[in-house]
Fold:
Amino acid sequence: MPRILIVEDEAIIRSALKRLLERNDYDVTEAASVEACHDMELLDYNLIISDLRLQGEPGTALIARANPVPVVIMTSYASMRSAIESLKQGAVDYVAKPFDHAELLETVSRILHQQSIRQSPAPDITDEGGGRQIMVGNCDAMQQVYTRIRKTAPADVSVLIQGESGTGKELVARAIHQQSKRAKAALICVNCAAIPETLIESELFGHEKGAFTGASAARTGLVEAAHGGTLFLDEIGELPLDAQARLLRVLQEGEIRKIGSVETRHVDVRLIAATHRDLRALSKSGEFRLDLYYRLNVMQIALPPLRERDDDILKIADILLDKTCQRHNRQGLRLSRAARQDLRDYPWPGNVRELENALERGVILAEGHLIHPDDLGLAPFSPRTTAISPPHPPSDTPEEDGKGPNAESDLSLEDYFQHFVLEHQDQMSETELAQKLGISRKSLWERRQRLGIPRKKSLRRSE
Structure:
C-alpha cells in the first residue's frame, strides 16, 4: 500500500484529505508543519503532499530534504507565479485549494505510477563477445521500456519490439532472453532483411540433401538451432509470405518441416520479433499475414527514437565517446560546448547508430583535445522546433513589396509556438502538441511557463 505524508497546518483540511486518501487505499500520515517532519524518515514515503504556506518553513523546504520522494504542493494562492516557483524548486505538481477530489486522486495516482516506473533499473546485458553492458537512458519512455522488459521476460510469450532503425531493438531482445527462464539456452539472432528471399526458408527451417539445386548436404535451420532457447527475428516485416506461413505453424503447433522432408519435428522456442514497419498496415495491403501479426503481438515494446530522448542524448554520447576513444587510442578527447549543443539539437534520423558514427568521425578528425561541430560531420538540419512549417500570417501588404507569402520569415519561434499552441490545444493532448512541434513534453511545459500559456484544465485531467 503506497504511503503518503500530508503536511498541512489547517486541521480540518488535513483530516478531510486524509479521509479521502484512506478511502482510496492509501496509507496516510499527518504533520502540521515542516518542523514536525524533522524526526520522520521521509524516504519511507512514496509521496508527500504539502501546503505551500505553513507556520514556520514553507512546504517547498521539503523538496530537497525528501529527494527523490516526489512532493506535490497545495496552495490557496492559486496564482501562476507561486505554482511555477514551486515547480522550479522541484515539486512534481501543484494543487490549487479548494481542490477537486477527482482531480487530486488522479494526480496522486499518476505520480505514484510514474514513480514506480522510474524505479525500474536498466537491465544488464551480456553481448556476443561476453562483455557486459547496461542500457542507457533515464527518460520516462525508457523507464517504461525497462518495466516492460522486467515484466515480460519471465512470461515466456512472444514479444514484438517496435522502433526505428538504430534504436536498440536487439539490445532489448537480449535483455528479455537473459532475464527469462531460457537464459542458459541459445539466443539465435536473424536479420530477415539480410538474407536473400530465395534462401530465407532454408536458413530458418533447414533442408534435406538434394532438396534443391546446390543442396549438397542436409542443413539444420535456425529455428531448430534455437530449440529450448529464444529466436530473435529482426526486421520481420521483410519476411516473405511463404516463410510467414511456416513460421505461423511453428508458433501454433511447435512444429517445423525441413524443405524436402516429409517428417515434422517438434521445437520449443520463444519468438521475439522486431520491426520498424507498421505490421498492421502491411497486413491490410496483403504484405503481412494478419494471423501471424496477432500471434507475434502478445506483448509489445515500443522503443522511443533518440530525438524524443533529450535528457539521454548527451549521456549516451559520453559513453559512446569513451568507448570510441579507447578503440582509437585517443583518450582524453572531449566534446566542445558547441558540439554538445549540436548533438542535443540534431534530429537523429539514424538514432543511436548515427550518433555512434558521428562520434567516431569526431574522434578520427579532431585536432587537439576537443571535438568541434565540424569534426562530427552532421548534415545541415533545421531546429526541431521548426519541424512544422508555420502558417502564413495575414498581411494586407502587396507581394511586390516583399512582405507577401514570405512574411512568415519575420515570425519568431516564440510567436509561432504561442500561435500554434493557442490554436490547437483544445483539439490536441500535450503529447500530440509536443510531437507536432517536434519537441519533448518537458520543453513544451517549460515554454508554456515562460510565455504564460496555461494548460487547459480539461486536457490536463484527461492525460
Summary: The two ends are 24 Å apart (CA to CA). Residues 385-411, 457-463 have pLDDT under 50 and may be disordered. Residues 101-118 form the longest helix (18 residues).
